[in-house]
Amino acid sequence: MKTLQDILSVRKVSIGLLAFGIALSVSCTSEPKNETSSNNALLDASIGEPVQRDFAEIKRSGVLRMITSYSSGAYFLHRGIQVGFEYELVREFAKKNDLALEVVIPAPDESPFDLLYKGEGDLIAANYTITEERSEIVDFTRPYNLVNQMVVVSEGLGVEPESISELEGIPITIRRNSSYFQSLEALRQQGFNLQINLVNEDMDTEALLFQVANGTIAATIADDNIFYATNKYMSGMIAGPQIAKRDEIAWAIRPNSEDLKTKMNQFLKSHFRYDENGIPKRSAFLNVLRKKYYEGSSQIAEYFNPELEEGPIGIISPYDSLFQTIAAEFDLDWLMLTAIAAQESKFDPTSVSWAGAVGLMQVLPRFSDISEDSLFIPEINAREGARIIKEHLDHYSYMDSTNQWQFALATYNAGMGHVADARRLTIDQNKNPNEWDEISGSLLKLMQRRYYQNARYGFCRGIETVRYVNEIMNRYDTYEAILAMNEFRTNGIPGIMGIKTLN
Fold this sequence. Notes:
With 503 residues, the protein is of the alpha+beta class. The chain has helices at 39-42, 55-61, 85-96, 112-118, 132-135, 179-189, 205-214, 224-230, 258-269, 284-293, 299-304, 320-330, 334-345, 378-395, 401-414, 416-428, 436-445, 449-452, 462-490; strands at 16-19, 26-28, 63-67, 76-78, 81-83, 100-104, 123-124, 139-140, 145-154, 172-175, 196-199, 219-223, 237-249, 252-253, 272-274, 280-282, 495-498. The protein has a three-stranded mixed beta sheet with strand order 2-11-10, with helices on one face.
């Protein structure tokens, strides 16, 4: 069976795995150690010189890389579709600037700050509070949210603390590199006798809330928006007193990305600002996102709690079993077929495009021997889409596997003629017509009159095809990581995804 697992040259998305109910590596102390290391160490980052990749370089590449966390608020998959507050907000910025969006999730041993500095991501969008420590190594955009820090205690304690003084004797578990540690330390300096338990940096806010809900730990700290989101699918938590108010949430970027910062600030100002009285004003779009992921809506519970789903679903999508069967028939990678269906129809078998493409894989009836009515049947449509993809792969069989898939995807999206035009244009420029990086540039040129007027198939909206290929390849990476997580769980080790909320 063809697989991209060992051949994709793009960066693999990794999702950390946390095992609960087994040994938890926690350093517990009522008196935190003296920290003499630099802010880099406190933030678990090595930090060298940042790469030169500002908005102009991002625009030339056509791809914006978003470093985020796998969590109920930031980014996650719902029935194979990418969703999340941070994801949708960054995606809107990318859309406004005609960029494809690529998601980068740090592995457990990776620092998001290091990934940012190395250029593997262009921004960190993970519910980051603006802090002095972080501001010394990254730049922040203007804020787009305000949050309050609150104590969350386990229902099993049998107490409901309403004031900070009532927290004495309750161990509060947090990470040293979180903004919560600074807030608790400030309260200790004010004379409050608070017991702080420091957990290793692989833990995160949502995972700690899971521990609170299970009664494994007594208490932790969370931003109110994260608490209210997770409280929709976890039980056993009690909201305690607030320890900090009106923390500003912003995107973190490299300190040498001034143009990117300007573009982002212009975008964010249109969605979030303060009036003359300091009261936050939000756009309708931002209010919809807040409602969807953090406030009264029950959607987040429906998204994130598999027990609430109606009917059987797969690990990745509602059609896992179908794609696995069909992929085996055509010697294809079922995750890639799934990623294509997500891109084409969002797994809606009744979908019809403006161009007349129908069904899961958006097959054009005029290019198929199957009747249009039959193409609305998921199994028939998926099999026909796989057949077409297989033909394209065979057409480019002389290429290396990565280019073979990229060319096949481009052809599936734009058609053989436009891809052939891009290859001829690439040859005219003395470049390699068998390299996707070269062809993607030529597809963009076919949007310009001086190039497409001489092309056999004319104008091509190449940016859509380039984005299509990039997004499917990136979605494949994400699916692959989640599949690995599930295999870890089914091998007898209970756990949930290591959702690095990075408050």
